[in-house]
Amino acid sequence: MDAGDPWDAALAGFAEYMAGERGFSAHTCRAYSSDMADLVEYLGARPMTTAGIREWLADAREGGAGSPTVARRVATVRCFAHWAVRRGILDADPTLRLRTPRVKADLPRVADPERLNSALDTLARLADDPVSVRDLVLLELLYGSGLRVSEVCSLDLGDPDLARRTVTVMGKGAKQRVVPLTVSCVRALERWMLCRDDLARPQERALLTGARGGRLDVRVARRVVHEATRAFPELPDLAPHGMRHSMATHVLSGGADLRYVQQLLGHASLASTQIYTHVSAERLRAAYENAHPRA
User: Fold this and answer.
1) H or E element at residue 289
2) How far is CA 142 from CA 40, 196, 277, 287, in A?
């Protein structure tokens, strides 16, 4: 296929496929669309072949892209090629002989459970205005229920069931799950519902809202978490995923089954959850070496 309008139509169709049929998150759709636009621009008038794709990946490497970025680009072009072959846009799949670079799985950064709980209790005592109460709810949902920050910001008013202490979450791939709420999270939500109207615009459906009354932006939520954890010297500087990682690690360390944690986190594969067993093993080894007289 030549560059130009046909590619524009193909990329637009691919974007619709990702958002509609595959149910990819907005973040994934943007990343994949950006990757494909970059590949089309790189190839110019050349057809999409295995050799051309490898050149594109090598060029990214030379430009400083790390293994995670290259791995995502491989995943992008594979997804596009599979779709394009089915639609007759490509005659053959040029990604069959591509290899995905190995990406080292770094152990997630986690907070000490007692220190994190103490910090959240302190924030609950200090919360005295709508913004600080909203921030408390955000932190409680990230740590207490292990939600992704995008999931928290996507929650609507009807999603939490305070009587049953659960929240209905729409996760990756448009998969719905019901997650428990902690007692402290329910208390924070009850406080939030009493003052939410001071921030929210009329008819706004979002559970958590920003300063202008609309749905809380993910970037603002990330900033809130960083600022909250930096306020406590005994805590590491955590991003929202650090709160989620801490929850998973603490629950596993407390004896929860790995399958149960998989369901809580909304992982499609158990392999995604198994990294937390490594975290727990590291904590166990550290405790052993500190306590055992012959360690």
Assistant:
1) helix 275-291
2) 38, 19, 20, 26
Catalytic residue positions, numbered: 148, 172, 241, 244, 267, 276
The 10s digit of each residue's pLDDT in 97-144 is 888 777 565 566 788 999 999 999 999 999 999 999 999 999 999 999
Residues 6+ apart with CB under 8 A from 102: 67
19-68 per-position pLDDT tens digit: 888 888 888 899 999 999 999 999 988 899 999 999 999 998 888 888 88
Answer whether 5-86 and 113-240 agree in fold. Answer: no
Question: Residue 202, SS3?
Answer: coil
CATH says 5-86 is which class?
mainly alpha
User: What three-state secondary structure class fits 49?
Assistant: coil
238 in Cβ contact with 229 (< 8 Å): yes
CATH class held by domain 113-240: mainly alpha
Band (2; pLDDT cuts 50, 70, 90): very low
